[in-house]
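As a representative case, we now present a protein record of this kind.
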Amino acid sequence: MEELSERDHAFIIDDSASMAPVWLDVQRVFEALSYIVKGMSPEGTELFFTISYATYLSKDTTDLSTHLSTLSKAKPQSSTA
């Protein structure tokens, strides 16, 4: 785990409509992985999405999980407007 220390950690979440059937799994995996790297990134963990323009940076993984959960209520979505 030392190899993960003092590095920037970013997660890219596929929030496309095709992910709807597995969205809860995506959330659970993110929560587990973000907990593992919690505190290892000096500036916090970043959360990006493939469709949404929303990005989040936080040292608190609970905040990031909350953002992901909130996004899931409106997502996954189509890339066409």
Summary: The longest strand covers residues 9-13.
